[in-house]
Amino acid sequence: MKQHDVAIIAGDGIGPEVTTEAFKVVRAAASRFGFEVRENYLPLGTNHYLETGEIFPDARFEEVKQHDAIYLGAIGDPRVPVGLIEFGIIAKLRFELDLYVNLRPVKLYDARLCPLKDKTPDDIDMLIVRENTEGAYSGMFGHAHKGQALEVATQTMVYTREGCERVIRYSFELAKLHGRKRVTLVDKANAVRAQDIWTRTFAIVAADYPDIETDHAYVDAACMWMIKNPEWFDVIVTTNLFGDIITDLGASLQGGMGIAASGNINPGKVSLFEPIHGSAPKHAGKGTASPVAAIMAGSMMLDYLGEKEAAEAIEKSIISLITQNRIRGVRTGEHGTAEVGDMVVEQIAQYAPA
Ligand code: IPM
Ligand code: MG
Asked: Is 188 annotated as catalytic?
């Protein structure tokens, strides 16, 4: 039997609750489709830090790298300084494993989940590819005269030719693989002139894909078009910071943080899957958070591990539960967290491929 080793960081806040449901579903899919997922839970996150002073020890990091994939629930906790755990765990994994693609599908499963009027699942179905290792997240920042009237703060956005090229190429390959017709570059090269490197690199890579249309939008306009005409977007490729921003907007179009999932990918290498939502500390421990985003991150993980049928079965099960109104919504409190996981498990057991 095929076996996949997964390192699981359930993390902070609602992370553990939604991760429990995600793996309930992963196990159901594994038994239905005949493979095994070995779950290795790692005690990392704010509680672990507060108890031990450890954020992500080197030995742990080496251990994580030995898996086929990594699954992350959520991190972030107001008891510790902003960014400490985020950068110590998620940013460390993204940078040190060189997970240069952040793939965030935005797909509306049912019109009632969409805050826009008159938009249907036909209108909202895009794949957003966020560059995940450079730009404003490169860590090149500093302060001079800190705390004084003369204080200066700078943070440099870094774009390398290789960094742009590989993520743009991934986007065209993704379009090809999924039969998508257009790739849109989203940047702000009119004001952030350094992003001209994106414009030029995009043109060079696009020339290798004559069957795929290209398009361009400045990020401010892209925000407007995503609301007015989301149907225009198919595959989007963009910088790290703009990708962070427009994928929250994208998540809202599909029903909110309770449904949106992502993959942090270095193709062919150990990659990381997570719901886009954060740890939502005020909802933690209540068993009312939507696990759909976490379950969909599990589906993306299985797809990446080559378990295409299982991944599709999970997504189709969720779609069917939503369209039948058995999952009424994906907002906190709409259902019990475990109730949703149980429904998906039951649906997978009955799943018959079309
Ligand atoms: C995300 C998050 C992270 C980011 C935070 C937690 C650092 O917002 O994955 O979108 O900005 O990348
Ligand atoms: Mg974000």
From this structure: yes
Tell whether the model's pLDDT for residue 4 goes beyond 80. Answer: yes
Q: What is the pLDDT of residue 197?
A: 98
Ligand 1 atom closest to the CA of 247, numbered from 1: 10
Q: Is the pLDDT of residue 298 over 80?
A: yes
Q: Does the structure show a pLDDT above 90 at 353? A: no
For ligand 1, whether the C-beta of 86 sits within 6 Å is yes
Among residues 215, 248, 286, 342, the one annotated as catalytic is 248
Q: Considering the domain delimited by 1-98+269-354, tell me its CATH architecture.
A: 3-Layer(aba) Sandwich (3.40)
Q: Is 64 helix (H, G, I), strand (E, B) or coil?
A: helix
Q: Ligand 2: distance of its center to the CA of 279 in Å?
A: 12
Which pLDDT band holds residue 352 (cuts at 50, 70, 90)?
Answer: confident
Report residue 354 as tokens: 């079309």
Is the CB of 334 inside a 6 Å radius of any atom of ligand 1? no
Q: Is the pLDDT of residue 260 over 80?
A: yes
215 is catalytic: no
For atom 7 of ligand 1, the residue with the nearest CA is 86
**Token pair in block for residue 217:** 């939008």
Return the HEC string of 15-43.
HHHHHHHHHHHHHHHHHHHCEEEEEEECC
User: 115-254 has which fold?
Assistant: Isopropylmalate Dehydrogenase (3.40.718)
